[in-house]
Amino acid sequence: MDHKRSALYLAQAGAIAAIYVVLTAIAAGFDLASGAIQVRFSEALTILPFFTPAAIPGLIIGCFLANLLTGCALPDIIFGTLATAIGAVGTRLLRRHKLLAPVPPILSNALIIPFVLRYAYHIPGSIPFFMLTVGVGEFIAAGIFGLILLHALEPVINRFEL
Predict the structure, then answer these.
(1) Where are the domains of the chain?
(2) Would you state the CATH architecture of domain 3-160?
(3) What is the spatial distance between Cα 129 and Cα 134, in angstroms, rounded to a whole number?
(4) 33, pLDDT greater than 70
(5) Is residue 1 scored above 70 in pLDDT?
(6) What is the pTM of this model?
(7) CA angle 40-41-42, nearest 5°?
């Protein structure tokens, strides 16, 4: 990788991380960033690995920092970041199937975060219930908002071949 491409990669990753943190902070202000019912606007960004591999470290760092800065419990910082990492890598792997791109973050969060809610935060409720609520929130953020973002960015990114 030449220096110009390395700089672009770092800039993209850094920008994505920063935007993820800001969007999570906004969601936290509306009490939507954590809990049994959550719609993190920042999870729409999990669609970005469709366009660039730089989004993967950007999302991982962004999620880690957002969880740290919004006061999440240590298991949430670890496993929430892991769920985002799995989702980002899965989205990158599915980049040839545009409409499937949001599926990995939806599934990874719906399968991992309910255990965090139950055992790290001791929120009353069942794991299947949390899978449903987290899954619906992630479907809204990554599935709906993420696909809207993908379709909005596609013509611009294709023009610049990023």
Answers:
(1) 3-160
(2) Orthogonal Bundle (1.10)
(3) 9
(4) no
(5) no
(6) 0.92
(7) 85
